[in-house]
Specification:
This protein is α/β, with parallel strands linked by helices and 544 residues long. The chain contains 19 helices and 13 strands. The strands form 4 sheets. It has a 4-stranded antiparallel β-sheet, covered by helices on one side. A 4-stranded parallel β-sheet has the order 6-5-10-11, sandwiched between helices. The protein has a 3-stranded antiparallel β-sheet with strand order 7-8-9. 47% of the residues are buried.
């Protein structure tokens, strides 16, 4: 379903020849939308704006959608949508299973890399943002009919497993009996041991060689550490209402066998060269080369990420790659994508985007951390929010605070403010949904019903219907631009319009067709609020 704003823009642009840049009218007497297209054309032509506006009004055919167009002021054109058209669109939103979200014209296979915690470490505040943002992208793109393949690129390989396994053997630990906090404590003891004992460090290095060679006892302990970690991760994912499961795992270890293959391929084709003992790729526009294999023969993150791109495009058949990783990694991914393009792993038909995000700040405006300066665990943040509200509302507060500002911005974690049911918060949207439910329950109890929007005489009714017509367009924009704050802003505006509608247009105290129409408008709005909240990963409660 093409949204009304899109339809209006299309028709006006067909005559004007340029984007009309429609804007919602600031006052009801100006209609629903305004455009300054005549002023811009007049400036280019050297004509009088009102003359250009008169010419456009005569040529633009919107009789099936709008009342007669009006010219205002120096040459603005006002558009007022016919109330029967608004009513029809609101009814479509009510009756269509998609709530007005249009299926993508060109469905794609989208691989989204997000969350990516490290084995034997609890998820921290950075994983909070990656997980929430990636989950939102997954929901939005699936709603549009794209095939979305999440990839949870966990840190399950590397030198740290040598020290972990050695510490396990030295302490005689039953790894299967550990939980994730205990595994992290083990990690810290092993790391301290490594710093204090050269003999232990030697044993840890030897253990890494055994792990890489496939030594069975070493691999068994390594797998047990992964299993303990996954149990902890999955418990947190469930608590956070995110969609990730073990089926989405694609850790560093799965690319281990491909690293030498990628390095050889790049070297054989002359893309990578040996420089000062290391295998590197010099990429135009970058001051330092991309290191594929260091001088000691070790492969770094660049090689792993290249192997991942190769797999995601070649084996998963991705048309679009999205990496939800902290903003400081922007340069790394720019370089990885550039090398992947050079190598043909990332053809021109496949897009690759790094969606960076800012930091979570404490009340003091500084990076959110413990008194010791270490990253705050994700679960402790959830605990802090749940000390202010029940879990569903606490989670709504966290997710909305995360998604409603631009992703690249830092934001302050203020649990008390975030859980408020007034203002621009997640719980405010939940409250709007619950309030709509309350009215619908009362209507049902009194034997009133409404299955279509038919009467929209009041401006407050029209504003709600107008906003409902935009829902599909907003979701499509989020899918394209990966800016979830657009959806948050839309839902906040819709909740506010619903509140104004309640105040100005009695629902149950009205009569006949007006009452039936207003009940249907309430139901359509409740449906869009519920659908929109679900796209943000937020529960839409029936009561609050």
């Amino acid at each position: 379903m093409l949204s009304l704003p899109s339809l209006l823009s299309e028709r006006v642009q067909a005559i004007a020849g340029i984007d009309p840049e429609l804007r919602p009218a600031t006052r009801p007497q100006f209609g629903h939308y305004q455009t300054n297209v005549a002023l811009r054309l007049a400036n280019a032509e050297g004509s009088k704006p009102r003359d250009v506006a008169a010419r456009l009004v005569e040529q633009i055919d919107l009789a099936d959608l709008c009342e007669p167009l009006e010219i205002a002021g120096p040459g603005f054109i006002n558009l007022r949508i016919r109330t029967d058209v608004l009513a029809r669109v609101a009814t479509q939103v009510l009756t269509e299973p998609s709530s007005g979200i249009s299926a993508a014209d060109d469905p794609r296979t989208v691989v989204i890399d997000y969350s990516s915690p490290n084995v034997a470490k609890q998820m921290h505040v950075g994983h909070l943002r990656s997980t929430i943002i990636g989950d939102c992208f997954t929901r939005v793109l699936r709603a549009q009919g794209h095939t979305v393949i999440p990839q949870n690129h966990i840190g399950d390989w590397g030198r740290q497993f040598g020290m972990l396994v050695e510490q396990i053997l030295e302490e005689g630990i039953d790894v299967s009996a550990l939980d994730l906090p205990a595994a992290e404590a083990l990690y810290q003891r092993a790391n301290n041991h490594l710093k204090e004992s050269e003999e232990f460090a030697d044993r840890a290095r030897e253990r890494v060689v055994l792990l890489q060679a496939g030594d069975a006892p070493t691999r068994q302990l390594w797998q047990q550490l992964i299993d303990v970690s996954l149990a902890g991760f999955n418990a947190t994912y469930k608590r956070m209402n995110v969609l990730l499961t073990n089926a989405d795992l694609a850790g560093e270890s799965m690319y281990n066998a491909d690293l030498a293959v990628v390095a050889a391929d790049l070297e054989d084709r002359g893309i990578a060269v040996v420089d000062d003992g290391a295998l590197v790729v010099f990429v135009e526009g970058f001051t330092a080369p991309a290191i594929i294999r260091n001088a000691a023969g070790g492969f770094g993150y660049t090689c792993t990420d290249l192997a991942a791109v190769r797999h995601r495009v070649g084996d998963l058949h991705a048309d679009r790659l999205i990496y939800v990783v902290g903003a400081p990694q922007a340069h790394h991914f720019e370089q990885v994508f550039a090398v992947a393009r050079l190598a043909g792993y990332l053809p021109g038909t496949v897009s690759a985007e790094h969606v960076g995000f800012g930091q979570v700040l404490g009340a003091d405006g500084k990076k959110f951390s413990t008194r010791e300066g270490t990253a705050v665990t994700l679960n402790s943040l959830l605990d802090a929010a749940e000390s202010e509200a029940v879990p569903a509302i606490a989670l709504a507060a966290i997710k909305y605070a995360d998604l409603s500002s631009g992703l690249q911005k830092d934001y302050t974690f203020d649990a008390e403010r975030m859980v408020a049911t007034t203002g621009d918060t997640g719980p405010y949207l939940q409250y709007a949904h619950a309030r709509a439910n309350q009215i619908l329950r009362k209507a049902e109890a009194e034997g009133f019903a409404g299955d279509a929007v038919t009467v929209l005489a009041e401006p407050a009714e029209q504003q709600v219907a107008l906003l409902l017509s935009r829902f599909g367009e907003v979701v499509a924009a989020v899918g394209e631009t990966l800016q979830p704050h657009r959806l948050c802003g839309y839902l906040y505006e819709l909740a506010g319009a619903l509140s104004s509608f309640y105040e100005q247009c009695p629902v149950l105290k009205s009569d006949g067709d007006v009452r039936a129409s207003r009940i249907a408008l309430c139901e359509a709005t409740r449906k869009v609020l519920a659908t929109g909240l679900d796209l943000l990963g937020i529960e839409a409660p029936e009561r609050m």
